[in-house]
Structures are given as structure tokens and as C-alpha cells.
Amino acid sequence: MTDDTFDPFDVIFIGGGPGGYIGAIKAAQLGLNTACVEMRGTLGGTCLNVGCIPSKALLQSSHLYHEAEADFAAHGIKTSGLALDLKAMMARKDTVVKDLTTGIAGLFKKNKVTYIPGRGRVTDAGTVQVTLADGGERTLKTENIVIATGSDVMGLPGVEIDEKTIVSSTGALTLNKVPKHLVVIGGGYIGLEMGSVWGRLGAKVTVVEFLDRITPGMDGELSRHLQRALTAQGMEFRLGTKVTGVKKAKSGVELTVEPAKGGDAETLKANVVLVSIGRKPYTDGLGLAEVGVTMDDRGFIPVDEDYQTNVAGIFAIGDILPDRPMLAHKAEEEGVVVAEKIAGHVGTVNYDAIPGVCYTWPEVATVGQSEDDLKAAGTPYNKGRFAFAANSRARASGDTEGGFVKLLADKETDRLLGAHIIGPDAGTMIAELVLALEMGASSEDIALTCHAHPTLNEAVKEAALAVTGKTLNS
């Protein structure tokens, strides 16, 4: 049945992922009558349901399993009868996801955000038609619509993902047994993280990457060290290699690969293939083209400094914006700022201070410009580097693994331009350096800051000292 009642709102967010739900909460806190339309049935978007959170839960569980198997003995802890209960590991992951999605629904109630489960479609600049999850339709009227629908898995042409033997990152989170051989197509963050999970649990992992390096866009020095660390853990890499065919076979999956620059083809056999070559904006079926919203040929939506599209009253944030990182925390910042702007306040996102983290072990975290960026731009800089091998806490924990902190500062002003960490808890350590970038700090400012001893973050202080060649512990 159809409900023709018009519900007036000040702002409607279509999409309940990190950008949408955070933006909706902020808008409500600013006094706007706010609704959030989400078709998944649970809030949190890809990140919480089938992305960041479940993958990190499995990364943590598999890391503990690997530590018990390979590292406990060095600490004087002897184990016997170690066994993997994959079903219990998956159940824990599912519980983490359920608890957090339920928590967002609670936050909506607390902040008086109207949550509407269903599929939203823009019919004009002030109307959203919702096909409700429990049947029927609902027409919503508003002065402001924010598209926050995120992104979806990018497929490989000619390859059918069945989420059983040929899987996306979603299927890789729900395998019911450890594959003997997992082939990962794509050497980006997601593929390496999921490869790490299943490699720790016993799978042979082969990464096939079209480019001649993994993690394109990451500082080259970190990328090389990460590949060495993962190779030492048993991960195999086929770089400069393209996949020309994938077909199911009795034993699993057969891939045809050949050198990216041309050469003889060969066959790789696997039990499971993970297609992880990137993500695409989710903008289909939203009615945007029909109401005149401009999109590029890939479906990304250009916006102005207020996150408004070319159609007045329709805004866009998150993964659907072009030429910006597809990161949950970046979308959250945009959600807050678009709410502030709609409410008549001032807000901005500093895209030069958005960190990126790869949650392998060692972790890799970066913010600001890479050394490759600075060289390409011809920017004079000084570099400070400090290895975790010389850090007391890392040595006490047994987490040295050749990692380091690298800081890049302007040669004339000493202002921090970029920070790059490969090592234990890099994703947490990077926060100090994001703050430094945000505040326009110099390497000297960081070096003069007292860091508790013994902590991993002392490596940050030492790297800052190294910018001027005055380290104290190396």
C-alpha cells in the first residue's frame, strides 16, 4: 500500500553509513528536524556491517591465534593442543557487528533522528520517495537532501562473484573453512588485510597485482617494507601481473595470468579467489540523473565547497565524491561539516590531514604528503627516520620487525608535511601526527614534546629529532 502523507523534515540523509549516520546525529544536535533513510536493514553502512569492523574483528582474532602458534614460546609461554574454532571466531565477529549497529540505532533515539528503513529515491530537489523495508511507500518532504550512499565492490569484467569460491571482501568475511590456497586479485589495503587473516589461519596466500608494487599511493619506502614483512609471513606476490581469465573447476578456481607488459600466460589454481581491485560509488537507482544531478562517467558526484551538487538543496558526502579517499573517518568529517553548513554554521575538512591505515601486522599508517609526492613536486624537505628496533617498548614486546617512523618536514620552515609509520599499533600512533599536521606544527615542536617512557610513541619523538640529525637513542 502507498502512504501519501507528506512528512516534512529540515534535512534527509540517504544512507546510514559513517557519513550519513554521523551527519544525521550532528544535524539533529544543531536543532534540525532530521531523518535518515537506510536500505540495508541495519545502520553503519559497509564499514560497520561488511567492512572495517568485521574485518578488524577477524584481524584481531587471527593475530592472537598466530601469536599463540608462533610467538608465545619466545615469551616463555608453552601451549599444547592449540586448535582453531573458526565457527566461534565468526560468531564473535558477528556479535561485535550486531552490538555496534544496535548502538547506532540507540544514538538515533537519543538524538531524536527519525530512522526510516527502506530504499530512498530522489524525485525532486525537495522530495524523497521511500520504498519501505516492511512494505509500502512513504513520501518525505525536505529543504535539504544529503546523498551518503557510500560505495560498492568493483567487479572484474567477465568474472562472476558467487561469494563462495569467487568472493568479494564481503564473502571473504564469511568463509566457513580455511582455504588451502587463497588468491587475492589486487594488492591494496583490503586485499592484504583479508589475505593476512586467512594466511594466519593456515591458508597459502598469493597476491596478484597489475602494478609493479603493492599499496599504490602509499609512501614507496613503506610499501617496500610492508611487502618484505608480509613475504616473511608466507604471503606470495605476483606483481606486474594481470588476470585474463577466472573459471570454476572441480578443485576450486583456475586463473589465467600473464605479465602486465605482455608475455606467456600461465594457470594458477586456488580454492578461493578474492576479487579486491577497488570500490565504486553507489549512485545507481537514486533518481539523481532524473533530477539533473551531475555525475561523472564512473558515477561520482562533484560538489562545491559546501558539499552541494549542481542542484540546489541536494548535497553529497563520503565515497561518492571524486578524487578523495574512500575512508569511513573522512566521510564522518564530511557528515559533520555538511550538517554544520546546512544549519548555517561554518565548517571545513582539512583533506591534507586525513590519515590512512592498513591493518596488517605490522600496521601501516600515513598522513600528509609522501616522499614520492614531495620529490615529484620538487619540494625541498628534510627527513627524519627512527627504527622500532631501537625503541624500548617495541623490543620488550617483541614487535620490531624492521618497522620505523618517518617524518618529512619543509626544509626552510620545518613545518611537518607528512608522517609515515610501519610497525606495531601504527594506526593509533598516527593520531599524534595528524594533530601536528592540523595545527601546523614543526618537527621541532614534536621533538620538544615530552613522550612517556617506555612507549612506542617515543619513536615519533626520535624521528622528529632525526629531522635535524640529532637522535638520542640511535
What does this structure look like?
There is one protein chain. It is globular and about 65 Å long. With 474 residues, the protein is an alpha/beta fold. The longest helix has 26 residues, at 86-111. The N and C termini lie far apart (73 Å). It has a five-stranded mixed barrel with strand order 1-2-3-4-5. Strands 7-14-8-9-10 form a five-stranded parallel beta sheet. The protein has 13 helices and 21 strands. The chain is 31% helix and 27% strand. It folds into three domains: 2-68 and 73-153 and 280-349, 3-Layer(bba) Sandwich (FAD/NAD(P)-binding domain); 166-277, FAD/NAD(P)-binding domain (3-Layer(bba) Sandwich), CATH 3.50.50; 353-466, Enolase-like, domain 1 (2-Layer Sandwich). Helix 1 (18-29) packs parallel to helix 4, helix 1 packs parallel to helix 8 (328-342) and helix 3 runs antiparallel to helix 4 (86-111).
Concise overview:
The chain has 474 residues and is of the alpha/beta class.
